[in-house]
DNA sequence: TCTGGGGTCCTAGGACCC
DNA sequence: TCTGGGGTCCTAGGACCC
């Protein structure tokens, strides 16, 4: 989806079309929306001058999305708000409304599922679609189906998206970036040399800041330069696994399937404080936040029907260094009190001299859970045996 | 310019078992 | 007097993605 969060906001504030708008910082609340409607009659009646500007923002947030006019100023997602404010102080700042974005996410994905049932969810604004067996999926290299998906999504939501069509997910993802917004790009295997090789390595999904910097240090900037390196050379510098992957990716090779079903591995809640807190001085406040995080994770587990037995915490110090601790217990749980108790044990094993900027709680090793019977549903992972095996005929040593 | 929140996967060492 | 080989699980950290 093109500038997804911002585009959803423009649907309710059409008067902001064409202007630099960024989403981030605070959360949308129904109360604030009600107040705006009371004041102006309707949301689309609010004059542009009345919207808050980025320049006024004070705090720790990051930009989640910027409209294309805002991107002209160098503002982009994941950028700190204070930096963005310097680059484009006049940009209009809107709070994040995840509830609404999820609704639009569900809608556009349902549109796609009607047209092409093999769809892999890649988050709130992105999917992979298998065109292979869809009627007309091969017409004009996929362009016809891509265009009709775009049109149906626009009819249902008023939102635009960009589509990349290619023989695998790696290339399709890259192709989808070529013509944003509202673009369609097709990459055939024989196009890799002239369409992919000139691009920066960082355009490959899976090469991030660290790998990108390491590659640059080795004199490799473009994908073509990466493709020119031998497999043994890459494995020598990046390890067997990642090296082999780099080699394949640089040649446009990717055999991952489109995965239509998946189970969650963990659920977590975390929060960054408005200002740093200290375990000694702010004990009461931290305790309340900690308990609240445990309650929220428990609530998430219960709502979605899961329980877990690995309970962990995350802590980020004022210097941005993070530590994690986790404990795996015998019994699965989705209970806030149990989570709080075990997470408390984790917290005891972490140094607390420094000030803290973030606290998080995580539950992993999940199973489907029936709250009424307090039992796992379906296949339960086998718990490791705690016994020494003494007296168990099946565990007699084969040799000494 | 100090950097959100929710995830996944990988690596590597140690415990423990046969 | 230093000592095999295979496996799984647990833990901590880190890279990366949306």
From TrEMBL:
<keyword id="KW-0460">Magnesium</keyword>
<dbReference type="InterPro" id="IPR050116">
    <property type="entry name" value="DNA_polymerase-Y"/>
</dbReference>
<dbReference type="InterPro" id="IPR043502">
    <property type="entry name" value="DNA/RNA_pol_sf"/>
</dbReference>
<comment type="similarity">
    <text>Belongs to the DNA polymerase type-Y family.</text>
</comment>
<dbReference type="InterPro" id="IPR017961">
    <property type="entry name" value="DNA_pol_Y-fam_little_finger"/>
</dbReference>
<feature type="binding site">
    <location>
        <position position="125"/>
    </location>
    <ligand>
        <name>Mg(2+)</name>
    </ligand>
</feature>
<keyword id="KW-0227">DNA damage</keyword>
<keyword id="KW-0479">Metal-binding</keyword>
<keyword id="KW-0963">Cytoplasm</keyword>
<dbReference type="Pfam" id="PF11799">
    <property type="entry name" value="IMS_C"/>
</dbReference>
<feature type="active site">
    <location>
        <position position="126"/>
    </location>
</feature>
<keyword id="KW-0548">Nucleotidyltransferase</keyword>
<keyword id="KW-0239">DNA-directed DNA polymerase</keyword>
<keyword id="KW-0238">DNA-binding</keyword>
<keyword id="KW-0515">Mutator protein</keyword>
<dbReference type="Pfam" id="PF00817">
    <property type="entry name" value="IMS"/>
</dbReference>
<feature type="site" description="Substrate discrimination">
    <location>
        <position position="5"/>
    </location>
</feature>
<feature type="domain" description="UmuC">
    <location>
        <begin position="1"/>
        <end position="208"/>
    </location>
</feature>
<dbReference type="InterPro" id="IPR036775">
    <property type="entry name" value="DNA_pol_Y-fam_lit_finger_sf"/>
</dbReference>
<dbReference type="GO" id="GO:0003887">
    <property type="term" value="F:DNA-directed DNA polymerase activity"/>
</dbReference>
<keyword id="KW-0234">DNA repair</keyword>
<comment type="function">
    <text>Poorly processive, error-prone DNA polymerase involved in untargeted mutagenesis. Copies undamaged DNA at stalled replication forks, which arise in vivo from mismatched or misaligned primer ends. These misaligned primers can be extended by PolIV. Exhibits no 3'-5' exonuclease (proofreading) activity. May be involved in translesional synthesis, in conjunction with the beta clamp from PolIII.</text>
</comment>
<dbReference type="InterPro" id="IPR043128">
    <property type="entry name" value="Rev_trsase/Diguanyl_cyclase"/>
</dbReference>
<dbReference type="InterPro" id="IPR024728">
    <property type="entry name" value="PolY_HhH_motif"/>
</dbReference>
<keyword id="KW-0808">Transferase</keyword>
<dbReference type="InterPro" id="IPR022880">
    <property type="entry name" value="DNApol_IV"/>
</dbReference>
<keyword id="KW-0235">DNA replication</keyword>
<dbReference type="InterPro" id="IPR001126">
    <property type="entry name" value="UmuC"/>
</dbReference>
<comment type="subunit">
    <text>Monomer.</text>
</comment>
<dbReference type="Pfam" id="PF11798">
    <property type="entry name" value="IMS_HHH"/>
</dbReference>
<protein>
    <recommendedName>
        <fullName>DNA polymerase IV</fullName>
        <ecNumber>2.7.7.7</ecNumber>
    </recommendedName>
</protein>
